[in-house]
Amino acid sequence: MSHTAGNLVLHLIFSTKGRQPLITPEIRADPFACLGGIVREMHGTALIINGTADPVHMLFRIRAAVIRWLFQPPCPVFRSPAAVGDGPDYD
Questions:
Q1: Which of 10, 13, 39, 83 has its CA at 20 to 30 Å from residue 60's CA atom?
Q2: Predicted pLDDT of residue 72
């Protein structure tokens, strides 16, 4: 029986609320390092994490199995904000 191993390369772009320039050069390294740690915890590889005062760009590689896990209910990562606090406890 053959086994398939897959890797996905994702490019995520996100910005601050209201696109306010909140990511100053003095603090830029801290949130980028935090994002890299999150990718490592998901057994992925951060290829590059960079940005300016507003948008952040992340290019990372992750195993397909992790993506399938993220989108399986009841994963708390993608619960709607309305469900937090009022919905069933998934922990």
A1: 83
A2: 65
